Amino acid sequence: MGIPDDEIDHDLLDFMRAALQGNTEAPPVAKPKTYVLESAQYIFDNAIDVALSREHVVKAAENIYTAMTKKAYSTETWSSHELHPKEKNEATVDFIFTMDLLNFSFWSELPPDKRFAVEYKGKTWSGYWSLVALLQRALDEGIPITTPSYWIDTELCTDEQLRHVFRSNTDEPFALLEERFECLREAGRVLCDRYDGSFANMIDEADGSAVALVVRLADEMECFRDEHMFEKRPVNFYKRAQILVADIWACFNGTSFGYFEDIDDLTMFADYRVPVTLTTLNCLLYGPTLEAHIKEKKIIPSGSSWEVQLRGASVWCVEQIRREILRNHPEAKVNAVLIDFYLYDTAKEMEEKGTEMIPHHRTRSIWY
Ligand SMILES: Nc1nc2c(c(CN[C@H]3C=C[C@H](O)[C@@H]3O)cn2[C@@H]2O[C@H](COP(=O)(O)O)[C@@H](O)[C@H]2O)c(=O)[nH]1
């Protein structure tokens, strides 16, 4: 069986053919690569504690395609969420950067009325939405929490002030608060030193490539460098760098700041919520020891073999679902980003409905 077509570098092949015919023009600039999909395939091929069910992937692909089509699931869905910013301007670019800089580790072992929560617009928000709510709350209070130059202003942006921004409406503090402050400081320094204090300028530098922007984020900001070792090899997930670019793309409907020619090259975002949906759909399977560990809500250390297998298999599973959908529906407007968004929203809907699901895995880190 030959190499799948979408893994052949056609630019390189064209260049080699031309060179053989004596045409020695400058070679094409090598396309940047995140190596997330290669990492996911390597992890999956060498995993012993996770597996995929081909039969359920095929079934899930059809069900997901049907549901997404019925819901007309598209980039427009992103802005339909109540708390997501609606304006299509640079302030929204700053908002999304801040949001995805801090988009990690919201899980809590406390019951819903005791876990970290933010009251905003008459509702109580937890998880990812508590972050979006507290950013909106700070802006309403006149605190420029989405402005990079503010994050490095030691006079105004004190830890005290940040603790006020991240205050909870319960007794539980936000997880990894100090690490979040460090993310703001580091990103603030880089954006102010190199991009005139604006992520929009960094988007410009990527020149319409989502992959180049993800690579630039991981290269230039340690807090986006979601890289680990598995079986003696480096593996990349770049979850927050990828979801940042995806959120910009979705918010701006692929235009303006959200224009990216290679958005389809992004992968699923390896978090702790979507694997629950994949498991509930019986696509992602855990070995008995790992499954028992997850069901007992025991900690899985960041960077451990189990955690890397779980994240890699989730990315690879969504890739198989994506390929299956496009195999049966070549015209479908789906990519890993929209499938991922749909799976995350489905996880939240199932949670709301009290659907019986395996608990999400417990890893505490700044990566997701
Ligand atoms: N793979 C993936 N992971 C996502 C999201 C989102 C929210 N994305 C919004 C944008 C478009 C979508 O329609 C959503 O409206 C958050 N997360 C991750 O989940 C975890 C939070 O879980 P919980 O504590 O239950 O809120 C945490 O790791 C967080 O980083 C996503 O879309 N995909």
Automatic annotation (TrEMBL):
Pfam families: Q_salvage (PF10343). GO terms for biological process: tRNA modification. Keywords: Hydrolase. GO terms for molecular function: hydrolase activity. It comes from the Eukaryota. It catalyses: queuosine 5'-phosphate + H2O = queuine + D-ribose 5-phosphate. It is an enzyme of class 3 (hydrolase). InterPro entries: Q_salvage. Its EC number is 3.2.2.-. Catalyzes the hydrolysis of queuosine 5'-phosphate, releasing the nucleobase queuine (q). Is required for salvage of queuine from exogenous queuosine (Q) that is imported and then converted to queuosine 5'-phosphate intracellularly. Belongs to the QNG1 protein family. This is Queuosine 5'-phosphate N-glycosylase/hydrolase. It comes from Pyronema omphalodes (strain CBS 100304) (Pyronema confluens). The lineage of its organism: Eukaryota, Fungi, Dikarya, Ascomycota, Pezizomycotina.
